[in-house]
Amino acid sequence: MRVRKKELIESDVSHGTPDFPLFVHEDIFVYRNGVVNPHWHNEFEILYMERGIGKFYVDGYEYKLNEGEYLFVNSGSIHSGLEMIKRSIGYAIVFDLRLLYSEEPDYCKHEYFLPLINKRYHIPSNLNDEHIRNDICRIIEVFKEKSYGYELYIKSLLFDIFWRVFKYYAERRNQDGRLGYKIERIKDVLNYINQNYNKNLSLDELSRQVDMSKFYLCRLFKESLRMSPVEYINKVRVDKAMELLINTDMSVSEIAFECGFDNISYFIKVFKKYMHTTPLKFRKQNL
Questions:
Q1: Which of 33, 86, 88, 253 is most exposed, with minimal Cβ within 10 Å?
Q2: 8 A C-beta contact, residue 53 and residue 88
Q3: Which residue intervals define the domain HTH araC/xylS-type in the entry (predicted)?
Q4: Which CATH fold would you assign to the domain 177-285?
């Protein structure tokens, strides 16, 4: 399986430029063999399925997107996905909402966008608005072309999308404090794993880090990410191994130990489970 150089849509990745903070990630399922690992970022995101079927999880809720359907992901939401049909094609339009308002006194900022960021508005996930769909497709097309003035056109399309969203679909709501608490605790665990994936991580250690029982931690992972802590740790380690296989001359055994595996056979087994190939074959395919 050949993997494109990464343009990952994750918390430590810049989306766009400081003066135009928007990026369209193409073919989002290609990077990890049909899977988008759990992650979050401060930017707003619009997911769009061009071909096939994708399943996505956002803050513990499951959504299935068929061809031509889209999904809104609010800033700070933990989300992940996987293709349900091989060679599905999905796009992620990721942008900072500050693209659409100024820091000066701005009515739209305080009336619409800040309440959206603070989750005081609920946008239904299963919108079936042809006008919005056309705007999303146009954003993708215009971003690819990047002809002169494309930034102005994309901003106008985003304003059109949010005008329709707020006029016809958005609903005021009280924030669910319990959900917010759960999401923040999960983020604490994910941060710890991502910073310490190369160490010997145990369930006992993770539960101590966030001061909760192992049982509750596992339940929280299943509810929010649809996977166990061990599964997430292995996904992170395989992801790091992919980078090293592509970008370094380290041996497979060196990479295994560098990524936190203390057994080469187990590393190969886990890598093959997620990538459907061995580390050595993966490296040869991506030279």
A1: 86
A2: yes
A3: 187-285
A4: Arc Repressor Mutant, subunit A (1.10.10)
Q: What is the 3-state secondary structure (H, E, C) of the chain?
A: CCCCCCCCCCCCCCCCECCECEEEECCCCCCCCCEEEEECCCCEEEEEEEECCEEEEECCEEEEECCCCEEEECCCCCEEEEECCCCCEEEEEEECHHHHCCCCCCHHHHHHHHHHHCCCEECCCCCCCHHHHHHHHHHHHHHHHCCCCHHHHHHHHHHHHHHHHHHHHCEECCCCHHHHHHHHHHHHHHHHHHHHCCCCCCHHHHHHHCCCCHHHHHHHHHHHHCCCHHHHHHHHHHHHHHHHHHHCCCCHHHHHHHCCCCCHHHHHHHHHHHHCCCHHHHHHHCC
Which tokens sit at 174?
């009280």
Q: Give the architecture-level CATH label for domain 22-168.
A: Sandwich (2.60)
Between the two ends of the chain, the Cα-to-Cα distance in Å is: 11
List average pLDDT for each run of 10 residues in the chain, which is 287 residues long.
44 76 90 83 94 92 94 91 91 95 88 88 86 98 97 98 95 68 84 92 90 89 89 93 92 95 94 92 87
